[in-house]
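Give me the fold.
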Amino acid sequence: ALESEAIQSEESLIDAGIHTAHEVNSTVFEELHLPDDAVHQAQEAWKFLVEAVGSREATGEAIYAALFDAAPSIQPLFKTPRAVMALRFMTGINQIIADLGSPTALKVVVETLGFQHLDLEVTEARTAIFREAILELVKTELTGRCSPLARESLAIVLNYVGGSFIYIRAKFAEKLKVIQASWSTVNQEPESAADGGSGTEEQSASFSGKDKEKEGASKKLVMNASVPHTFTDMFQFNAAVMGFGNCGWMGEILASFDTIVTHVANSYRLQEECDVLSLRLAKFKTINLGEYKAVMLASLRSLCKEWGSDHEVAWSWLWENVERLLQGLMGKPGIQEKALTELLNSLDEAALQMIRREVYSVFFASAPAGQEYFKQSTTRLHFIADKVVSMTLDMYREPKKMVEDISALGLRHVGYGIPTDLFGPFVSACVAVVHSLAPPQQALEAFRWSLNLVTRILTRVIMEGSTVAMQAINANSARQLRRAVSCAPRGERALWVLNVQVGTQSISPLLWALEAGSLDAASAIIQDLLTIRADRDRYYFGADPLFERHPDIIKRLVSDGPAILPLLLDGLIWRSRTTQGGQRRVVYYVKHLLADLDGNFSPNLQWLYESGNPKLVCHPLVVVVADMVWSGVAFRSFTLGRLWFLITLLVFIVAQCAFNTHEEPPKEHSEGLRVGIFALRVFIYVLSMGSMLAQRTINLVTDIRSRKFTRYGKLVLPDSFTEVHSVVTWLLCIMLVVMLALEPIVYCMQDDDSPLFAEHCSAAEGHANLYGLAAALALFLYFMLLGDLAVYSTKISAYALVCTRAIAEMMLCLVGLSFVVLTFTCAICALKQDHPDFNTLPNAALSLVLIPLSMLSGERLDSVQAEDSTLLMAVMVYMVVSGVFLLTLLVSQLNCAYAQTYEDMLGFARLHRIQVVCDTMVNVPPARWSKWITGLALDERVEFGEGDIGLSGGVQVLEPSYAHITTVDIIKRFGGSTSPAEQWPEDVDVDDEDDRAERFERSFAKSMKKFATFITGVSTGSISSGTSGSTLPGGLDKSSGSD
């Protein structure tokens, strides 16, 4: 019954097309028309296969394994890495199956794939092997769920694809080879002219003229003064000579010509480029494409020395295809733009709201899977719908800018993991909703064409950007990412995880992993980049590409992935496995942590300080970098800056304290001493106070202009007011201003009876006490600012930090004591007693404060006992609460605070030093920094061992062998080929238990499926598959028999 059903289904398919399930037809290449039920059955079978295997990636791997094991004769054809090849298999077959219902689209896909396989010798025998391997995989995985009609449909499709590949290779291979070879020749830049060469954008700019914004204006060609060596230069030269200097439209074609030639074998891509080019050409009134052909051929003949009839035919054929595509759209974009503009301008808010709402209703109805990707709020979805509508018109108005914007959008969708299968239903939904508004046919066609072009560009960018690394990031799988990058050539391995380029737009897989929260994948990327690998010729280390691509990688990790920042720092350290004389070689790769790409002081230390992580700054690499900058550059500048402060403090002490005798009655100093004191105080008020006020004012104005504010609830303060050092400096300035306002010398100058610069006179007596208080507070603030000198020693700085942390606990105790004092003061005053120490609120509060400080004499306490027992009881309870409970609690708090701070006090001390270093580096002269960084010779390679010259960018030190025990060689060395184009051999170290367990489960499941298939065949009496005899499990042929 199954055989008769298969025969009937095949006959029906044979009637529908020219391909059968058993024969490959390579004589024609036409559209393949299959019945609707056959298309549905094939697509369902493919869907079931993906579900049975587990995922698209796993399906690609299964196809690869089936083909690789099917025939040893085709194994030499598998030159591409396994993961990449599996992805290509999955992507190609999936596109074919998805377009089975559209013969025109299917032909385009197959044609594109055929051009991509021109370098392979596809034969009918190899097509049969490919077909049988796929069908066997389908049969094995879909036991009982694959109908004969689906099997026959898949066989016909595979034969159609194989026959088309053979046909395309026979007809177009020679032309395409001639085009690609000659194009490579005419774009080779001679060594003598390499320095003067310019990029594509600069070359095409000569056609665009000075006013690039007015694309419709007349643009002139500029002839290069030098001898043309490339196609672009020669084209400009010939265009000017042939009298086409005013043909600005030629510049638009020339700017796209490299893309056109490069993708001539990809009809889908060629159509897209010509569609965009037609929009750009629509800005010009008069266009004669034949003129471009004449200039193009003349330029090619001049540059290609081996030009012959084959070249003439091939390039003429290329231009005929391009011209045909451009002529088909000539004159339409302008009309369509006008019609679409009128349509969109006519839509009122109600119509727009209906479009926003109905687009998703229709889309979700036709593609329910889309609901899993459109999870945003309704307002966000409406915003997307508005952008889609506006993009259709912007594509007509600014095609070049829109292509770049869509490319950037597509790369973001790569990171989102959006299936391209959903774009078709979404476009159909948009067109259907707009069609329901009954617009003019011209406007509807313009909307459909533009939206289709946007979708094609978006789909292409996603397909080109969906690398195996990006798929691993979407899955957040470190194991999958390791497998993906293992396929990369050793010379390009770093670029695979740092840059995905599509046209002029790029995306960083590492950065996307951090933004998407795929920290497992990000950790695997960083670990792979910072693993030193070596062959006999060279070392490979990804630190330079990493920091060149992401100079702010430290900042990004601090904000988005602090947990993996230590992994990055660990990777920048190399330690030798061997020791000598109890010492171990260590290389710290500090180049990018010290200097940025321009050679200036790098902000990496500032970013590490802003992390506020005391454990992080104790990392050996950070310690080395901070100490190098401190001892090499910052120490001198900081000392000079603090020296001025020490001088002003010494002057203040001499002027205010050194000559104060406090005699009664006060005596005036000698005239010379009075003049000296006056000069010192002028120094304080003018130079010290003046410089501090000027600097603080500048910082305040800078914060206000830069809008650098910090909010504390409803209170908003400039950033300069959030730093303790800055606040103390402001308070010191205020105290100095108060001292100047109360200066006794100034008051005594107004007294005619006082000697010159006297301090003691009747006019100054009323302000003497306030002046003394202000001077005392100023001295206190001066010494607080002197605390910065603790940075010279991390131990002293750590101790000062502990004291600072203890002050917070002390303040809590004082708050509690104040509450207790207030409580007992009110309670005692309410008693009926007249003790002189407790009879009023002030006296009672003062006495209670003195008790825990042991400042109240015993006689006074004895008088309380003799006076009143109730008062005595209240005082005793207070002494227990304040002297026993609160003080004991304070001791416990201090112990806990110290224990907590002690663990990280060295880290906090280093944080403080890094802060001082970063603040000091602002004032370091660039010349001194440049001299110091040059003296480190970071561009010179550092030895890994005797005679083993390693990598540049590091400094080498010796550390005790017991400091960091290293038993494994950090450098992974490989033999064999040393070509940068080769992959690294498989790293067995990363083959962990999960990998082995997964492989065992997959192998066991595959064996069980084969066994189930065999049992099913035995029970039905039919074990044959397709057209050839099947084999029993274990590789034994059924007909051979076995005991």
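Residues 515 and 560 are 7 Å apart (CA to CA).
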